[in-house]
Amino acid sequence: MVPRIFKVTGILCIAFVLAVGSLNAQWLEAPAESRSYQQGGTLYEPLMEFVYELESRTELMNVQKVTETLMGRDVVLCILSNPPIFSPADIDKTGKPVVLLVQNVHGSEVAGKDASMELMRDLVFGDLRPLLDKVVVLNVPTINPDGAEVRRRTNEQGFDMNRDYIKLESQEIYSLITKIINIWHPDIHLDSHHGGAVPYTLTFQTNMNPAGDKELMRFGNEEILSRVRAALRAEDYDGFWYSGGRRGADGVATWTPTSVEPRKQHVYSTLANMIGFLYETPGNSYRVINNGTEVVEIPREERYKHQVRGQYIGQRELVKFAAERGDDLKRVIGEAKMRAIELGNNDSDNDQIPIEYERVSKFEEDFWLRKEGGEPGEYELVRGEVHTLFVPTRTTTRPWGYHMPPQLAEVIPVLMDHEITVKQLTEPAEVEVEVYYAQDITHDEYFQGHYLTRVTAVKDTQTVQFPAGSFFVPTGQQKSNFLCYLLEPETNDNLVTWEYLNDFLSIRAPRGGEPREMGELVRVVGARGVRDTTLLVGVRTGVRDTTFFIQARRIAEVTQERPQRPSGQLIPIYRLMKKTNLKGVLVQSPNEYDKNRYIK
Ligand SMILES: [Zn+2]
């Protein structure tokens, strides 16, 4: 724990003093600067000492505790604005754009957090200060302090937290979503990492999953990242797409991105109507100078300095962009939200949402690659294909909404954590819906405590009776793109993927074992207990006697009694295609108490 009242420990070196107006502000050396960038990433205590010292010297920055890690370290949010603000309520309706910077999610990837210390200092004391008149900057200096302390990728629970954006099982990402993103609704959301290809100083990517809003993606790619690259070149560096290039057996050079599942931050962000960016800092053993025309070596002892500088330039440009083009930025975000609402609410436009996609070459461009057969350090500029476009290969019509039976109460808190609006029927409804039958269920890949589940499904149209207490998720809401991805069972990142529907889909034992018997399913569900949320929802709707596992069994029985239906197992997420009058009320989060479930 770092005491709120800072005591000078000597770790911090106050290099020189600047009087700024009447604030009696003092210039502070950031932690990495004070060590001349010789010891790599700053560890938790000196980092937080700097944060609290900076906060104590300026009124333009406030620090809020967001959560506490398993090892007892605070994860904090720094709020920077002029005039100072404490909450989103302080930004009026015509308010400033909000830029959220999140550092260090992979504990061993550190240049971004050190860069952000210098950036915050320059925003409150330096030449960047005027930007705070026009933009709110939110910075999480480290979202993974436990991992960072031992230079480990994961948090203390072993989660790769940049794969946790669907299931929110780490308290850090859960808190980031529910206590920062759902509260502040940032326009830009950056995650900083170490990766990418030398000789570039910074590599970057914004969302490319075709399920995202096209204009958001175009804006991030074309308007913002082009500026970031120009800013890097202006300081005699260069930047390029994440992740890297290679020559194929045919000699053709291609540059490829990372995969685009929404479990990753920059993809999630864009599906959730922010412009998400991934910044990756390569090794910086070389750099590109002279406006992209020449590569020179960087001495080992200077590499971290350049890594930090690359992140600084990239993060500063996001803040500058938001300050200078805040109206455009907010308009683009606002229109994306309105488009999502309109597309979902319109039940006759037949608009298509992607279920599967593939990566294609977007354009040819020059980039630096290691010279073929050359010495280490020899680079050549080659013309190659840059694969930064993904196009749908299979789509389905966006439904007007999704019905779910009361037994799916277990997943409602997950939806609500993602700020998805859910209704609950107060009277039964008989409606025609599209139903999925899973014909093939596999979960061969084990990842982060889950057997990632994939289904191949066929659709059928049925008239189904939904009892009072059933759930309905309208797609005419701003998170439409994200919620469709989450509820369509055949995407590569949905509720089925992360085993939320295992109690309804007959579970094959891992590695090709026999399917589990229903008795075993009941035992598994029983052992897990009826979750609090199920009980709470049950109490609210008067279906208290309906226990979870008995309902699971009933669903299975009903399915078996219908030989005329497609073979396979019914997936209890039903697509309602046409506008229908339904009697229901919006669900208030049944687990409000749960928001602090990770804080003891
Ligand atoms: Zn990383």
What would you say this structure looks like, in words?
By secondary structure, the chain is an alpha+beta fold. The protein has three domains: 53-244 and 255-345, Aminopeptidase, CATH 3.40.630.10; 353-393, no CATH class; 401-596, no CATH class. It has 14 helices and 23 strands. The strands form five sheets. It has an eight-stranded mixed sheet, with helices on both faces. The protein is globular. The protein starts with 30 loop residues before the first helix and ends in a 14-residue tail after the last strand. The model is unreliable at 1-25, 508-563 and 596-600 (pLDDT under 50). The structure holds zinc ion. Zinc ion (ZN) binds at residues 106, 109, 193, 195.
Task: Pick out its properties.
600 residues; alpha+beta; Aminopeptidase; seven-stranded antiparallel beta sheet; 14 helices; 23 strands; 26% strand; disordered C terminus; binds zinc ion
Overall CATH architecture of the largest domain: 3-Layer(aba) Sandwich
Uncertain runs: 1-25, 508-563, 596-600
Integer tally of domains? 3
Distance between the termini: 15 Å
Overall geometric form: globular
Report the portion of residues in β strands.
25-35%
* Biggest beta sheet attributes: 8 strands, mixed
CATH topology of the largest domain: Aminopeptidase
Q: Give helix % range.
A: 25-40%
The ligands bound in this entry are:
zinc ion
Mean pLDDT: 87
CATH level 4 superfamily of the largest domain: Zn peptidases
